[in-house]
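Hi support team,

I submitted a single chain yesterday and got back a structure, but I'm not sure I'm reading the token output correctly. Could someone confirm the output below corresponds to the sequence I sent? I've pasted both exactly as they appear in my results page.

Thanks,
R.
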Amino acid sequence: MASMEALLVSLAVVLAAACAWAGGLAALAKWLSKQAFRMALSIVRLGPVPRHVAFIMDGNRRFAKKLHVKPGEGHKLGFERLEQTLDWCMQLGIKVVTVYAFSIENFKRPQEEVDTLMNLAQLKFAEMAEKSELVKKNGISVRVIGKTDMLPPHVYRSACSAIHQTSTNTNAILNICCPYTSQHEILAAIKGTVDGVHDGMIEPADIDQDTLEQCLFTGDCPPLDILVRTSGESRLSDFMLWQAAQNCHVHFLDILWPEFSFWHMLPILLRFQADFSKITASRERHHSDMRRIRASRAASQSHGHAHKASISSSHDESASDYSDHIQQQQQQPMLAQPAFLRKGDLSAGHAAATAADLWDASSDNDSTVSTHVSHSIKHRLPRVPSPVSSSSTKSDAIETRQHLQDQRLAAFYDHVRSARLAVAERGSR
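Hi R., thanks for writing in. Yes, this is the structure output for that exact sequence:
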């Protein structure tokens, strides 16, 4: 009996030693992994780091099915993965992260899943607004972009609270596309450009690729450098189609979003660094081409206005001669006059004044620009659905965000107009 007890004690000691050894190995493995991560971060930071990356966070439902849990659990794990991804993006020095959180088309999913997603989004927005150490530590400005008036009221309030509470953060930006499609974004950009023309801030001839880009939801963000989609699907699903069309590395990974990690991103970052000089050269060529096109267009407009003024001057002389002729006729017996003269449709200088007004209307000063700001691009921020208190953080967030975006776009429109006028002035000399 005593020998049996001694044997059991010996086995217990051996098991305890084995567990301690295994625990030590686990701790060692964890330490080595952390050191490797830090070393890899340091190596990547030695080269050019992308300023703007985007993620299509796909595969949450399949991951839940893989674990034999409900889809909602998969989405929760997906949000946790987003926080971890955002953390190492900030450590790398990436300034803008844009994520596809919810498509407008996702409202067609089963109502139970949609409600789960909306409640989870409301919870995460609230955390970002008040409790997120990651947001506070890294100075992240949270933006919820898309057709946000489709969000349920409680989610909408939390989203606006997150926008409002982080609006003064200037170190980095997190764009959460919810609910979003690229078709809606491009349509909204076109409407914003039309508003700029309607408000007299730009002329139709000023509209080009850069003008539309400024009216996109990401108009004040750097160009998109990298777009990653998980889950093995090789399509963009109506996400950032405009932004990804030029000089953007697009990668499709055969891994589910909750499994995504820095080590999956590392080869993508290294590939970006290898191609960085080509990307930079391509973007410089694009900007040079756009400047040349604008200069040519402004010079053409200047020539056209000068031609109109010349024609108007000849019209003035003709009108003056015709008036003298009419006065001579009035001293003679009354004759029938053309209908347009009886109605007073022809007046000396009318044509010249019209031509001049067409040009002067596009050269408003800064004070005039500021009067247009509050009326332009109203679509760029969601409207406050009723009922809502005027003192709520939701209303404050909407007004703050709209004011900042309107100011930015007004400054851009003013820059375009000033450049056009400068070229026109040089051409008239």
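A quick pointer for reading it: DSSP finds 14 helices and six strands in the chain. Let us know if anything else looks off.

Best,
Support desk
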